[in-house]
Known about the structure:
By secondary structure, the protein is mostly helical. It is 62% helix and 5% strand. The chain has eight helices and four strands.
Amino acid sequence: MKKAPALKTNNQSSLYWNWYYSGFALAASFLLAIVLVKPIGVSTQFVIFDGILANSINPELVTTDVTSKSGYSSTNSYLNKSGGKYAKAAANPMNYGFIFVISMIAGGWLAAKTQSRKAEQLPIFHRSRFSGNTPLRFCLTFIGGILVLYDARLAGGCTSGHMMSGVMQTAVSGYLFAAAAFALAVPTAILLYRKGGNNQ
């Protein structure tokens, strides 16, 4: 039987989990969520956060509605979808999904603070391609995040909801989303980092 890869450190002395262990940890987390609560999805909560901000500016955006399935309705057609489900979440944000996203942020912060060695902000392949341009890295990350989130909402779910939770439940939409994501991500990475070294 092949021995599992061990934890490694790169030449910047930043400790990281090997993909082997990370994959099992991620799969276990998604499986537990599906079995114990519900499938994990993240991008919807950004819509809810927008609704919370908008509702704080315009209190009439979300109102109680006894005729609605959720008990809430909104003048915004998107928040009013599915019987006002998003409107209800915006009015009562302390729900499982929103707390999950906040916990992800808190968990990332906690992991960074408790890490014995500090991770580099710039991956090796980015430094070799763009000469360690940190502002450019942040800019590309921000733009990529906007594109992914916008497209995720058009697709009705994100990589968490479609690709991870969806594939685990053998949903056709999950397989289609995964195929489309890789079909675009791989050539984009090749185009963006084509001059970034031969082994990264």
